[in-house]
């Protein structure tokens, strides 16, 4: 049976261990570090919450972070990450151990001080990243049950972005930029159409989803097939929506610093035309 060798017990709930395949790893669990000494062996099948920090810099960051944290919080975050790992069904970026630990600890301190931070992209996050949002709901519920701290719905959105970041190997700052970009483009659409799109509507959800996948295609450099006849028809039939779509792709190009294939204009035009029709129908019903 393979074993993990204890390198150092950082506190009662965290040890640094030497893994037979992954070298240094972080192991989190209630009381797992109690009375552990360097050189002690632990059967691998007894270890549930194991996190690999390949980067020496990340290992040192985590070690520096731990003394500032309540041991119960460390244990709860280990449970949160274990829960996310099981549902993600694929390896998470190792940085989530540090990023989410630091974020949640800071959020709990803010909550104790009565400081609330509004999440301006909460609805967009829930619509764009539904799987990650559900995991974040479970994470915040776990923190509430174990720590008796209700971080609230705004925090669910922030945690969801950290989870998405870890699942896609995309830095959290880039994920936040994408959320802001989508919100800004929706605002451009609403201002141009002079139409407040109902948040709970299918049209709003479709627009957010389309913009998200368009951004992902641009980031990947994915070739979008040109449909010349459709492009020409849309330009002739719906010139205002076509120009709005072109404007949105130019915003994407500027913010992402990547080229956007012209075919994206055609696909966006169709979504925008549907919104324009919804606006007209709403005005006729008044």
TrEMBL record:
GO terms for biological process: regulation of DNA-templated transcription. Keywords: Repeat. The keyword Repeat applies. InterPro entries: BglG_antiterminators (IPR050661), CAT_RNA-bd_dom (IPR004341), CAT_RNA-bd_dom_sf (IPR036650), PRD (IPR011608), PRD_sf (IPR036634). It comes from the Bacteria. SUPFAM superfamilies: PTS-regulatory domain, PRD, SacY-like RNA-binding domain. This is PRD domain-containing protein.
């Amino acid at each position: 049976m393979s074993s993990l060798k204890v390198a150092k017990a950082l506190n009662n709930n965290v040890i640094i261990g030497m893994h037979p395949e992954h070298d240094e790893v972080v192991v989190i669990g209630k009381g797992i570090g109690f009375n552990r000494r360097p050189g002690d062996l632990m059967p691998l099948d007894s270890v549930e919450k194991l996190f690999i920090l390949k980067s020496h810099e990340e290992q040192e960051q985590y070690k520096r972070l731990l003394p500032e944290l309540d041991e119960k919080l460390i244990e709860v975050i280990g449970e949160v990450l274990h829960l996310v790992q099981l549902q993600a069904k694929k390896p998470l970026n190792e940085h989530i151990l540090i990023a989410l630990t630091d974020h949640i600890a800071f959020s709990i301190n803010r909550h104790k001080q009565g400081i609330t931070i509004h999440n301006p992209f909460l609805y967009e996050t829930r619509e764009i990243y539904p799987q990650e949002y559900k995991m974040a709901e479970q994470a915040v519920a776990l923190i509430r049950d174990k720590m008796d701290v209700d971080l609230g719905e705004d925090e669910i959105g922030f945690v969801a972005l950290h989870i998405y970041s870890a699942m896609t190997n995309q830095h959290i700052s880039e994920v936040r930029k994408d959320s802001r970009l989508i919100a800004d483009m929706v605002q451009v659409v609403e201002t141009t159409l002079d139409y407040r799109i109902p948040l709970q509507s299918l049209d709003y959800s479709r627009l957010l989803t389309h913009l998200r996948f368009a951004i992902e295609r641009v980031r990947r450099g994915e070739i979008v097939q040109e449909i010349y006849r459709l492009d020409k028809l849309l330009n002739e039939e719906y010139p205002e929506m076509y120009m709005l779509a072109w404007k949105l792709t130019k915003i994407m190009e500027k913010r992402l610093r990547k080229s956007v294939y012209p075919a994206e204009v055609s696909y966006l035009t169709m979504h925008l035309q549907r919104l324009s029709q919804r606006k007209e129908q709403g005005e006729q019903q008044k």
